[in-house]
Prior knowledge:
The chain is of the alpha+beta class. 24% of the residues lie in helices and 26% in strands. The protein has eight helices and 17 strands. Helix 3 packs antiparallel against helix 4 (49-55). The structure holds calcium ion (2 copies). Residues 141-142, 144, 146, 186-188, 225 line the site of one calcium ion (CA).
Amino acid sequence: xxxxALTTFLAARAAGRRPCKSADGAADTRWPVWRNVxxxxxxxxxxxxxxxxxxxxxxxxxxxxxxxxxxxxxxxxQGPISFADELVSFVPGSGAIDNExxxxxxxxxxxxxxxxxxxxxxxxxxxxxxxxxFTDNALVDIPGPDLYVFEAGDAPEPxxxxxxxxxxxxxxxxxxxxxxxxQPVDIAGRVSPGQTxxxxxxxxxxDICTSSWGGADIDAVGxxxxxxxxxxxxxxxFATGSARLKANAQRALTAVEAEIRGLxxxxxxxxxxxxxxxxxxxxxxxxxxxxxKAVQAHLSRRRSFPETARVEVVGYGESRPQRPxxxxxxxxxxxxxxVLILPE
Length: 344
Ligand SMILES: [Ca+2]
Ligand SMILES: [Ca+2]
């Protein structure tokens, strides 16, 4: 490490910043030699695990300019819940193998990006399609980038992005190709204000897929524009067909009520009612609206909503199932009340 680099390093420490990586991540690609020297310096001088993690790209700390956590220089205001939670499906394309000739692990794309080296990623392969879902959060449009695809290959390849609010109807967002490890995506102009999305679909852009190792290597997918989502089983709140809260319903609402009470600043709270597909569409629509209103009224009586919160009630009937309504278990999962907490 040269004198200039050492001065920069110490200045960063004095300023309370983490010196292993620049604020915009430029050091990772512009000065690879200094990056390695910095890692050794960090390990020897401070023996600090967070420092090593940061140099490796994990980025798990809040910073002065980020209210959540930073992963590889990208701020995720809602922290670890920002990332995709569930693998819906993966259809590998040709050449969907890693450098050792092994197929990737689609589960590895869930959760936060993994520190490298040794990161497990998913090669999409030529025409490969990966569908993921957010469950404890949802994607929403905010000013600037809303979604990040963490791509781990040395030569990131174009990937088409689609999003959906029901897993059936898909909105094409466009094609992304990052110059580094992250690929920012802005959904503005393609969605309605305040609309939330749980599904994301990544498809390898086949027209440029020419190598034997086709497609991008996906590490993680995170929503920087993220709404907190809490789903409550309707069976613990209501009797069958009823919109009157059970006597002990408060027990199931305690956790989300505590979250709502803790909200600060301008936020939007949306209470959504959902049913399965049993009965008529019209009756399910009425029931879902009535149940969402019952939850909102109950929380209002308890003065749970901060004055700065804008509260909305929506009934979606049977139009947004979480599962295909193909079994009693799946129908039960679709009967629910969702509470979404969004940035204003
Ligand atoms: Ca999540
Ligand atoms: Ca945006």
